[in-house]
Design goal:
This protein is mainly alpha-helical and about 80 residues long. The protein starts with a helix and ends with a helix.
């Protein structure tokens, strides 16, 4: 969905520019990745093409990496230490 893409871009910009609030932005980013996970599962189950994910293999790879993105957002911003 276009809205989630815009949110991802805004979160990326925030991660790059809002250093003072990096832990908070990291937590919000991790929560965003958790929130969109059910939609990603649905796209895999229904075989929905979106954003270049036009094969079951590509959609499965994204599902595999989703928890990695959550952990990466928490680790790279030290948000996991502050919660």
């Amino acid at each position: 969905m276009v809205i989630s893409g815009v949110a991802e871009i805004l979160l990326g910009v925030a991660l790059l520019t809002l250093w003072r609030f990096r832990a908070q932005v990291g937590m919000v980013t991790a929560l965003f990745f958790v929130a969109i996970f059910p939609g990603n599962i649905s796209q895999f189950q229904n075989g929905t093409d979106a954003f270049g994910l036009n094969t079951d293999e590509a959609r499965a790879i994204r599902l595999f990496f989703q928890p990695v993105f959550v952990l990466w957002a928490l680790w790279s911003t030290s948000a996991w230490r502050r919660s």
